[in-house]
């Protein structure tokens, strides 16, 4: 007999403004406690010292997390010149100091070199696996290892403010897998100094925006009356770029049981099969037939 899942079935997305000094996993636990949802997950980890947009999926929305993880993200960050740390942020120990401080002109001059597809070596304190082990665990144990270089995409990078001699603020728009800590580190090295992040805030993840994110405190306050809660976004929020295809209720029954249905005059594509406003399944269309890939149990 299947074990009964604890909690209540809630399906949709929350746009949470993650506070500082808390892990993304801890945010998931808090959301699960507040909402008592059966299933909760996050899309795109934020480091504990970082704040900002953390999309949280509830229920069947967890099946669409991959579409948000792959989406374009935007950050604002502050680089602290003259000090590097072993974590490339404020949580680590200072490893190197430099008296050199870049000017705004020097920074602006090298920014174009960090646009487009660039190569980046992630920080050693990261979740990347090295021979099956998380890099941050190896680093904490004092092991010496080489991080694999990777290609990432920087869509835009802007120096927004020279705060003072030691600090500069930037805005960046980037693709999946970009480490902002590594970006600040590499920029500093090219400028003949060292740096670490003193602040990092995520301002956008795909359709999730900073100005509509809510705090955990606000969520707890508003969730006292779930029927009136207006900040739960539909499951399809993560599927903005996926075409919707309308099917009948009879066809939906077939799709929910894993069977294909005929959808003439539809081009081959990945789509979301819908009955009215209800998503039925992420599906693949081939030769006029719709094949379910991920069925939503709603």
Write the layout of secondary structure elements.
Elements: E1 12-18, H1 24-35, E2 40-42, E3 51-58, H2 65-69, E4 73-81, E5 83-85, E6 94-97, H3 104-110, E7 116-120, E8 129-130, E9 133-134, H4 135-140, E10 150-164, E11 167-174, H5 180-190, E12 195-205, E13 208-209, H6 216-222, E14 244-246, H7 249-256, E15 261-262, E16 269-275, E17 278-286, E18 289-295
Parallel strand pairs: 3-12, 14-16
Antiparallel strand pairs: 1-3, 2-3, 4-11, 4-12, 5-6, 7-10, 8-9, 10-11, 12-13, 15-18, 16-17, 17-18
Order of helices and strands: EHEEHEEEHEEEHEEHEEHEHEEEE
In CATH's first tier, which class of the largest domain applies? Answer: Alpha Beta
- The total number of structural domains is 3
CATH fold call of the largest domain: Pseudouridine synthase
Distance between the termini: 21 Å
Mean pLDDT over all positions: 92
Helix proportion: 10-25%
Note the beta-strand portion: 35-45%
C-alpha geometry:
elongated
Care to describe what's here?
By secondary structure, the protein is of the alpha+beta class. It folds into 3 domains: 89 residues, 2-Layer Sandwich (Pseudouridine synthase), CATH 3.30.2350; 133 residues, Pseudouridine synthase; 54 residues, Archaeosine Trna-guanine Transglycosylase, Chain: A, domain 4, CATH 2.30.130.60. The mean pLDDT is 92. It starts with 11 loop residues before the first strand and ends with a strand. 34% of the residues are buried. It is elongated. Strands 1, 2, 3, 4, 7, 10, 11, 12 and 13 form a 9-stranded mixed beta sheet that branches. Strands 14-16-17-18-15 form a 5-stranded mixed beta sheet, covered by helices on one side. The chain has a two-stranded antiparallel sheet with strand order 5-6. It contains 7 helices and 18 strands. A hairpin with a 2-residue loop joins strand 16 and strand 17. The longest helix has 12 residues.
């Amino acid at each position: 007999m299947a074990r009964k899942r604890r909690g209540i079935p809630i399906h949709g997305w929350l746009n949470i403004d993650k506070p500082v000094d808390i892990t993304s996993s801890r945010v998931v636990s808090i959301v699960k406690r507040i909402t008592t949802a059966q299933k909760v997950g996050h899309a795109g980890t934020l480091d504990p010292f970082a704040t900002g947009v953390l999309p949280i999926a509830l229920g069947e929305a967890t099946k669409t997390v991959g579409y948000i993880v792959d989406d374009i993200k935007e950050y604002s960050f502050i680089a602290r010149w003259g000090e590097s740390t072993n974590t490339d942020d404020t949580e680590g120990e200072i490893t190197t100091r430099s008296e050199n401080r870049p000017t705004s002109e020097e920074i602006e001059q090298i920014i174009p070199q960090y646009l487009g597809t660039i190569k980046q070596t992630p920080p050693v304190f990261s979740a990347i696996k090295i021979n099956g082990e998380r890099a941050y665990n190896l680093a904490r144990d004092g092991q010496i290892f080489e991080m694999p270089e990777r290609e990432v995409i920087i869509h835009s990078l802007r120096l927004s403010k020279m705060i003072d001699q030691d600090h500069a603020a930037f805005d960046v728009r980037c693709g999946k897998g970009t480490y902002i800590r590594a970006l600040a580190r590499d920029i500093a090295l090219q400028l003949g100094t060292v740096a670490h992040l003193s602040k990092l805030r995520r301002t956008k993840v795909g359709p999730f925006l900073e100005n509509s994110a809510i705090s955990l405190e606000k969520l707890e306050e508003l969730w006292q009356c779930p029927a009136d809660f207006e900040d739960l976004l539909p499951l399809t929020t993560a599927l903005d770029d996926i075409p919707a295809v309308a099917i009948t209720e009879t066809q939906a029954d077939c799709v929910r049981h894993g069977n294909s249905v005929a959808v003439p005059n539809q081009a081959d594509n990945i789509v979301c099969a819908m009955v009215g406003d209800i998503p039925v399944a992420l599906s693949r269309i081939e030769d006029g037939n719709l094949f379910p890939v991920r069925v939503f149990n709603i």
